[in-house]
Amino acid sequence: MTVDLNRLKAERIAKGYTQKDITKLLGKENRSWYAKRENGIVSLGANELLEIAAVLGYDKNHMAIFFKDNVPVRVRKPVTE
């Protein structure tokens, strides 16, 4: 599983926050701190993701929304009923 940065961005936009807003709410001084993480330039740490998710209104029990499976299609087994 990997962090879905597109989902992170979409949730931020849906809540009406700019990158600068998130940065201020996290107590950081520079917007680039957040922008680099949202754009995948700097790896997003687990604690950082928890802090950002909390600002967006998600608690640790609802973190799955920010992850995606990254198993290659050729390795996946078909679903059988």
TrEMBL record:
Ranges where the HTH cro/C1-type domain occurs: 8-63
Signal peptide: none
GO MF, any single term: DNA binding
PROSITE patterns (UniProt xref): HTH_CROC1
Pfam families: HTH_3 (PF01381)
Regions that span the bilayer: none
Protein name (Swiss-Prot/TrEMBL): HTH cro/C1-type domain-containing protein
Organism: Liquorilactobacillus mali
